[in-house]
Amino acid sequence: ISLNLIIAISDGNNYGLNLRTLMTAILTKYLSGIFNLSSKTFIILFLVFILLEIVKKLGLIDRADRTIGKLIKWLGLKSNSAAPLLTGIVLGIIYGAGIIDDLIKEQNISPRQVFLIAVFLGICHALFEDTGLFLAIGANLFWITIPRIVVAIFVTYLASKIYNE
Prior knowledge:
Blueprint: H1 2-11, H2 16-57, H3 60-72, H4 82-106, H5 111-123, H6 127-136, H7 141-162
Helix pairs in contact: 4-5, 5-7
């Protein structure tokens, strides 16, 4: 096909049909891939939002805020920042973005808290997903988790000292 494409462009013979067929095939494959990925993403996010509503109804977010809030306090984060932080750590930024946004609005999290959450998640997001993917290809568990967590804690702590409310 690529040879026909080169010939069609170079000598002007009637190979335009092959070029048109090639472009149609590429475009069709591209659009079907986009539709397929978008459908899967929609289903995943739909299920995640249903799970979030169940978690809220069970009061698990409040419990997480109280429990993890004690651990993240010295990072400059308030206890109501625990749920968005955990969401980003577990689901990552792409799948967790909608949930994180909802939680930030619902819990009236301050711009400083949002900034500190973003700093932490910029370094250490999708911890479970990334770890699973890298372990599947033979990576060392220690080197793909512990340094990310330590650096995220350190940088977030420094950011909390620099960015005062």
